Amino acid sequence: MSDSEEHGKQWKTLDKDLNRISQVEMATFHIARPMVGLGVALAFIIVAGLFAALVFGGQPGSAVVIAAAALGAYMAINIGANDVANNMGPAVGANALTMGGAIVIAALCESAGALLAGGDVVSTISKGIIDPSAVANTQVFIWAMMAALLSSALWVNLATWIGAPVSTTHSVVGGVMGAGIAAAGFATVNWGSMGLIAASWVISPLLGGVIAAGFLWFIKARIMYQPDKIAAARRWVPVLIGIMMGTFATYLAVKGLKKIVSVDLLTALLIGLGVGALSYVASAPLVRRQSEGLENRNKSLKALFGLPLVISAALLSFAHGANDVANAVGPLAAIVHANASGEFAGSVSIPHWVMVIGAFGISFGLILFGPKLIKMVGSQITKLNPMRAYCVALSAAITVIVASWLGLPVSSTHIAVGGVFGVGFFREWYHEKRLDETMRKKKDLRIAAEERRRRKLVRRSHFMTIVAAWVITVPAAALLSAIVFWLLSHLAG
Predict the structure, then answer these.
(1) Is the dihedral of CA 334, 339, 340, 341 positive or negative?
(2) What would the pLDDT profile of 335-354 be if each residue is shown by its tens digit?
């Protein structure tokens, strides 16, 4: 064998060995990635506990506050991993935002909403689910809130792991209810409030789905199936943008700006009307300029809905941070107040450091674990494009306003995911309708039942998993909470 052949053989051997090493490194990287996320999350939980130790170290009952701060950080991470997907999923699924862009926008807007516009006061009993006077004493109340915080966080964590977007607010409600029952019996629960919440499980996703489907029908009828699509878009897209901005102005005024200014629903609607009119006037020339040179086909229309969709996702995240973070850290605020004053109250002020833990925890949870649920909501339930995703975002804001008017305690998760289902099921119905019309015209055209089932546009497996998770969220969190409360009270006793 010549020297050149021998060197060639050595290089081949070396290439094979290097390839094997690179494959091992790649496999190690994929295995280690989840461990890195868990490590960072654990570090944040420890930092939150240490921060509480610096603030309360040496004071009576400081150990309880430190443990509660760590649990609050754990809960906030789970909110970021699960709840935020509802706001960003449609925009990512429609390719209006990249995953990285969605995470950055959501992290900034959620944190801004929590810190700038988050409510000063939160109900410690989570929307009046249990009667505070029924809880025996302050220590029992603290254990009940600890149990509610841990059980709701564990449930949301489990739901994220199985890929089901659930309501963190309903998880906290279930946790508070379970701890209240364990502490003082079934009589302590306000079953009227629980009945309203149970009704909202059905009403809010149905309402979100119907409104989203209605807007999609409007876009199809008035824009997509018109002979001149671009001219129709120039006429109607500014109207839709005006509706969107007016709706979000009303939504933020009602739900997200309590700390800055408190307004009633009528005033909020007038604010929305003004903002909507200004948005229509401002967007009309922009849409006209953006539509110049576009081909007369549906694919061209996507460009006109991209920016409004990104704006709506950012506004939804801001409102979510302002409204839902306070509900999630409510039990932590209650523990801090009860420990400091020696008594418990129906509502307490939220300390700034508690809101900081909530805001940063959401950002960490979103960055580390959020992509899984964002993909689920955005692309795995049904296929979304900018027009469909826009309908979902708009229906989420409108449904919250309608629910506030009706006095229903709704979940933003149920509404947003209900909107995704609504869009998907409407498309199925519309396709079936057009197919039936085609088959009537072409007598010889026949499509087998199996083929029709294969053409369904909503994945039934995801639908059943999500609905099942919604139904058992409150009872599962309540059962977990009762067990945790029993363990804590017995260990302490």
Answers:
(1) positive
(2) 888 887 777 666 677 788 88
CA 321 – CA 115 distance, rounded (Å): 8
Question: Which of 206, 211, 216 has the alpha carbon at shortest distance from 431?
Answer: 216
Cα distance between residue 205 and residue 293, in whole Å: 39
Is residue 103's pLDDT more than 50?
A: yes
Separation of alpha carbons 233 and 301, rounded Å:
7
Helical H runs in 384-459? 386-406, 412-441, 449-454
Write out 79-127 in H/E/C secondary structure.
HHHHCCHHHHHHHHHCCCCCHHHHHHHHHHHHHHHHHHHCCCEEECCCC
**Burial class (CB within 10 angstroms; exposed 0-12, middle 13-18, buried 19+) of 24:** exposed
The kind and range of the H/E element at 70 are helix 62-82
Indicate the domain borders of the chain: 37-492
Nearest alpha-carbon partner for 256 in 117, 374, 148: 117
CA distances from 400 to 262, 397, 430 (A): 17, 5, 27
Residues 5-14 have pLDDT tens digits of 555 555 566 5
369: closest CA among 159, 152, 169?
A: 159
**Which helix (H) or strand (E) segment is 258 a member of?**
none
- The two three-digit tokens of residue 62, written as one number: 């400081």
Query: What is the DSSP secondary-structure string of 232-253?
Result: HHHHHHHHHHHHHHHHHHHHII
Q: Return the SS3 of 347.
A: strand
Rounded to whole angstroms, the Cα distance separating 265 from 267 reads 6
Give CA–CA dist 19/4, Å, rounded.
22
Whole-prediction pTM = 0.82
Q: Are strands 347-349 and 121-123 parallel, antiparallel or unpaired?
A: antiparallel
